[in-house]
Design a protein that fits this description.
The chain is α+β, with helices and mostly antiparallel strands. The chain folds into four domains: 49 residues; 102 residues, no CATH class; 113 residues, Trna Endonuclease, Chain: A, domain 1; 88 residues, no CATH class. Helices cover 40% and strands 23% of the residues. A hairpin with a 2-residue loop joins β1 and β2. α1 packs across α7. The protein is extended.
């Protein structure tokens, strides 16, 4: 979305639509300007943007600039807190002359234990215009235009009395998004009607923003059509019709990357903690719909690896009715679900028919990883029983290739006991093959020569251990390979 005061619209015969962009000339010009000001203060960039506004509609220039600003990393020139500096200085009252100014700066210098120059640099350092554009991440001008057109559509729909849409495909993502955003809807034939923020008794910015956040999911469908009633403000409020379809010649993101949203900081922290743990499991937010009796559950997280699936539901909200309904649905769920529960809720482990983990401010990672490891071990054991013994004809083969041939996981292949074969790095190598390499290396050889031989076969120095060699080092540099006799 963009600020409402930057929205440019066209009104005609009871219809309203944003002024969509097609030409990339302005986008190209602005991207080049942002590139030029990388490493400089943002206020210097703003001065040049003001000159550009004289040649174009200033609202469009500022709208595009906001989208580009979101692709910038900013940094302050100082680590001092600008707000604290300003408060200290302004608490000293008005400054009537240079002497008084120097006196106050010297007082600040002693209090913060930094130079007067650093004090002056820090006064407004927390304000965006005084910050440095550390890094700008440009993207193609056409992408900027598409994102602009999407943003102004979202801004217009902020004042929708109602939103009606039809789609072909992408239903799951759309209804998950509707549920997550807390939108009210009803279905009439094939059309979904979402109650708009302007029709509520008390309009809230949060609800208007939620309507806007639904749009990317709708335009991700194969075909779509959006209709809305838009209430305009001003001296003479009016209601206009808005309509847009996938067949219109409007540049919009064809496939908007899904943005991960979280219901709480607890969820966001857990997601980031799990990603940082590098477990080898993929984590997905609200990944699917699970049948639970006459209801459905969209679990908070799903974990995926080599055909294995596990789900996690977070019970962090509480009313007696909500908790009773939640427990009932979870008991009927036809899937492997672990449950984490806010320890402040009035429930116990016995209330659930699944693994329950209690948390306070942060969901613990270790119990989750333990559950997933147990699932992995069970999966490996089952695969090993299914495969039994295998025989290899190849002297050397990649583990990945063999895993695909056998239809099992890489971890299972690594556990298999194959007579006269060794797992070395990402390869399975026969004893006979290693004996031939051993003959090629000899009793003693320069490390550089040995490394070339091993690289020829895609092996690492780990293979030397299996052939009974030791590496002779000179400081931190390997110089020679010698056979253990």
């Amino acid at each position: 979305m963009l600020p409402k005061d930057l929205l440019v619209t066209i009104k005609r015969k009871g219809f309203i639509k944003p002024k969509y962009l097609q030409d990339t000339k302005l986008a190209e010009e602005l991207i080049e300007i942002f590139k030029k000001y990388e490493g400089r203060k943002y206020k210097e960039l703003q001065e040049e943007l003001e000159n550009i506004e004289n040649n174009y509609n200033y609202k469009i220039v500022r709208g595009l600039a906001i989208l580009l600003e979101r692709r910038c990393e900013f940094e302050k020139k100082t680590n001092l807190n600008g707000k604290e500096i300003r408060k200290f200085l302004f608490d000293r009252g008005f400054v009537v002359d240079d002497y008084e100014r120097e006196k106050i700066l010297e007082e600040a210098e002693r209090f913060f234990k930094v130079s007067k120059k650093e004090i002056e640099e820090a006064i407004f350092s927390d304000l965006r215009e005084e910050q440095i554009i550390k890094k700008f991440y440009p993207f193609p001008p056409i992408n900027l235009i598409k994102n602009y057109n999407l943003s102004i559509t979202q801004t217009l729909l902020f004042d929708a009395l109602e939103l009606n849409f039809t789609v072909e495909g992408n239903y799951q993502q759309i209804f998950r998004r509707i549920k997550y955003l807390g939108l009210m809807y009803e279905i009439e034939d094939n059309e979904i009607k979402v109650t708009g923020p302007a029709s509520l008794f008390k309009k809230t910015r949060k609800y208007g923003t939620s309507i806007a956040k639904l749009i990317p999911s709708i335009i991700n469908a194969n075909k779509w059509k959006i209709r809305a009633k838009i209430e305009t403000r001003g001296k003479e409020p009016r209601i206009y019709d808005f309509e847009i379809t996938s067949h219109d010649n409007i540049l919009l993101p064809a496939h908007v990357e899904p943005i991960i949203h979280f219901d709480s900081q607890v969820e966001e922290k857990f997601y980031n903690d799990f990603k940082s743990a590098n477990t080898g499991w993929e984590i997905r937010r609200e990944p699917t719909i699970i049948k639970a009796g006459n209801y459905v559950i969209i679990p908070d997280f799903g974990f995926y690896k080599n055909g294995m699936e596990h789900y996690l539901e977070i019970v962090g909200f509480w009313t007696p009715e909500y908790l009773k309904k939640k427990i009932s649905k979870l008991k009927k769920a036809k899937a492997n679900i672990s449950i984490v529960v806010n320890q402040n809720l009035s429930c116990q482990k016995e209330d659930f028919e699944a693994e329950v983990i209690f948390y306070n401010n942060r969901i613990p990672i270790k119990p989750i990883i333990k559950i997933l490891r147990e699932i992995e071990e069970k999966h490996i054991e089952e695969e090993m029983k299914k495969i039994g013994k295998i025989e290899l004809k190849e002297d050397i083969i990649s583990i990945d290739k063999k895993a695909k041939e056998l239809g099992i996981s890489i971890e299972t292949v690594k556990r298999l006991k194959i007579p006269n074969y060794f797992v070395i790095g990402d390869k399975i190598v026969s004893k006979k093959f290693l004996e031939n390499i051993e003959k090629e290396i000899g009793i003693e050889r320069e490390y550089g020569d040995v490394e070339k031989i091993l690289r020829k076969y895609g092996l690492t120095s780990k293979a030397l251990d299996y052939m009974g060699y030791k590496i002779e080092w000179k400081g931190l540099k390997p110089v020679r390979v010698i056979k253990n006799l």
